[in-house]
Write a structure and sequence with these properties.
The complex is a heterodimer of chains A (72) and B (490). With 72 residues, chain A is mostly helical. Chain A is built from three helices and no strands. The longest helix of chain A has 30 residues. Classes of the chains: A mainly alpha (72), B mainly alpha (490).
Amino acid sequence: MNAAPARRTAHRWLLLLPFLWQVALIPLVNDVPLRPFSLPFPMFWQMLGILVTTGVIGLVRSIDRRQERSAP
Amino acid sequence: MTLALFLAIVLGTMAGAVFYGQRRSRGRTMDEWAIGGRRFGSWIFWFVNAGEIYTTFAVLGISGYAWAFGAPAYIAFTSVSLACTLGYWLMPKIWDAGRRHGLVTQADFFEQHYGATWLAVIVGVAGIAALVVYVQIQITALSLILRLTVGPQFSTLQSALLAAGVMLAFVYVAGLRSAAFAAGVKDVLMIVMVVGLSLSVADKVGAASMLDVYRLAQEQHPGIGTLPGLKPDANLTTTWLVTAALNVALGTWIFPHMFQLVYSASSVEAIRRNAMWQPLYSLSYFFIVLLGFAALLAGTAPPDGNPNAVLLQFVGDRYPAWAVGLLAGGAALLALVPGSILLLGAASIFGRNVVLPLKRDLGDGTVLWLSRLAMIGFAGIAVWLTLTSNKSLVEIGLSAYAAIGMLAPGVFLAFLWPRASAVGVFAGIVAGYAALLLPAATAFWVARLPEWDQGLLAMGVNALVAVLVSLVVPSRVARTTFAIAPAGPG
């Protein structure tokens, strides 16, 4: 995705992580019998996924910003 | 008491919003009215964005879905974060194209990129259709709120008409800036309301704490916490959640009003910051699902078993009148604000992309006037749809996503594949709608892939046809949308 030659964009692939976490793993986490904080596990997993997403976007954003500052 | 609070909230917010919109507006151009003059900074952009995401679909719809089905309501937790992840990549591209070519609507984008006015007209009409379905959600909810809290003496028709009338009145006065103000008020009010209800809900259903509500719900209703939820016959399995979550993520920015919202950002930085922080807000679905589960534990029986009414019914049964008034007022804003932005989007597309191509010599003022007139028509269609449907808000929402998904391949291909052509995109749209709407096609999906989200299947057919046809008839438009390296902050 987004292969602009002038800019290193490999870190953008990190944006696939939220999709792995919140979509691809749905079938695997659905039947985990744990109940962290009394919550159904798949629900707990999706809430963690939201935190992961903000973390991943934050990371990609900081890499983007560093690149843009050094090579405007 | 309920009525007084309800009216105070709705009318007070409307007055404040109109005042704010008037004070901040510079001139009455189409740009200013429809996309806030492309000057929305991080905060206001965030609020308008939140205003669009947290509609009655989110609060009344998801709590009702949790009450009726259980785990399938988790789709709410995936909707915002996945859309934002995709949006981090996609939104700056849309924004940049919009700024460089002076685009106001989504159909403008198709016209500019694919160099085909006829495609823009088709995209415009398709976009309006999806928006009207989305307005239907808000009118369904608003008329329900009116009947449940203000007065059961209203008929469905009366309350739907009243809901549409208030929505129109709201958007006529000042446009997107007013909506941004009202979005701020409604977000604060709904958060306070939802958290307040959640903090006191344990007592009402005999649980020791909020988390204990989740424990009780799983004990008394085995299967509620995992897919396929309480009603396995509904086919809401893990496959369903995977496909529906993907379809929602791919469709979110394709809605014409979301597309238009992206143009309104003042900078790429505003967009990126929003993409990063917006997902955290969706953690609040914890409370919405909680209230749905609590209503189930309390044995809430909404009128006609209507899941959309569960939250209001539950609060009406167990809480004092002032709480009902606050919730009803907040929920009404939750329908009004997005509803008015949706109508605004449909109207600006109608003016620019359907009327103008047919009659080029109209002035900006005339187009604006015609757009506003068309809004009445769209609101009327939405009212009519409301009267003929009794589906849950989440179901209506997913069908809106399915409808708008037909425009997704055209947007994504524009940024990914220079060869994609107007003819290819058009063929994809036709094939996609056929796969979505033809009775034979839907029967086929139900028989072969019963657990799949039909919107995603149709989008797949659409994309495949668009690519195949573009291979045969490639684009000959000189590309300008491509050389995009999103500009730095500022």
